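Exercise 7b. Backbone tokens:
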């Protein structure tokens, strides 16, 4: 069914299939009541609901830019779910994740992107580099590309490490105008020869209204208690809008990092 508050479909998790043990957040492949498999990101994992907020914002901004992202859904884990799970660590995770979690449609048969094997056009590489500098995503490096090749097309996954500053009590307004030094480690930086063109395209495709619609999707359940949900959603929206206005800062930094690289 459609969730009118978020714009995302809501599914019920019916079967835990297998854990994905890449990293500490312990995502898993799970089956839902719509018959599809999803990669489930749990609110009870180490970084908590804020990682899910970053995943939602990152994925939907990428979608606005025309990049390929698996469908995101809200995934409900029932209180009784996982009681028969034999692994204690997984059982604890499922208990801590009762309620709304985030699922990404599972791309069966996809394989991890390898820049030495799969060439990426400068326009696409530049737009992805722009996206990750915009979102301050520290996790798209040669060590962990978070890119999949599925049906000969490039798909972006895992934006939970974006907006990393929101895990601390950082001032969003200050962060919005800061450069992003980790862009020098980006797996596609060498191929990103069209960063100015990517910036122009992003400026056309991303609007204040569109960014507010995305932050309006954040479920209240993932936000901090004690502060009105709209105040928190607006804080994310303001960050994105201000960062878009200041894109020259991170574009120039990425161009400089690329010049050093090549």
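Sequence design result:
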């Amino acid at each position: 069914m459609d969730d009118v508050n978020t714009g995302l479909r809501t599914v019920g998790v019916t079967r835990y299939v297998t854990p994905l043990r890449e990293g500490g957040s312990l995502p898993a492949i799970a089956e839902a009541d719509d018959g599809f498999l999803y990669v489930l990101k749990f609110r009870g994992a180490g970084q908590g609901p804020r990682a899910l907020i970053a995943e939602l914002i990152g994925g939907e901004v990428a979608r606005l830019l025309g990049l390929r992202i698996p469908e995101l859904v809200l995934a409900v884990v029932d209180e009784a779910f996982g009681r028969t799970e034999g692994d204690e660590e997984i059982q604890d995770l499922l208990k801590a994740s009762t309620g709304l979690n985030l699922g990404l449609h599972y791309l069966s048969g996809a394989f991890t992107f390898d820049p030495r094997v799969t060439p990426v056009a400068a326009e696409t590489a530049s737009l992805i580099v722009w996206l990750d500098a915009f979102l301050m995503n520290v996790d798209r490096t040669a060590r962990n590309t978070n890119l999949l090749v599925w049906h000969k097309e490039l798909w972006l996954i895992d934006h939970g490490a974006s907006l990393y500053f929101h895990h601390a009590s950082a001032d969003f307004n200050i962060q919005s105008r800061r450069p992003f030094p980790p862009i020098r480690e980006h797996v596609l930086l060498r191929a990103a020869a069209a960063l100015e063109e990517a910036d122009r395209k992003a400026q056309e495709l991303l609007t204040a209204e569109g960014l507010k619609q995305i932050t309006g999707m954040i479920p209240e359940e993932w936000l901090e208690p004690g502060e009105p949900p709209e105040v928190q959603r607006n804080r994310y929206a303001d960050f994105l809008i201000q960062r878009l206005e200041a894109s020259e800062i991170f574009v120039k930094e990425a161009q400089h990092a690329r010049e050093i690289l090549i």
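Instructor comment: The longest strand covers residues 9-19. The radius of gyration is 18 Å.
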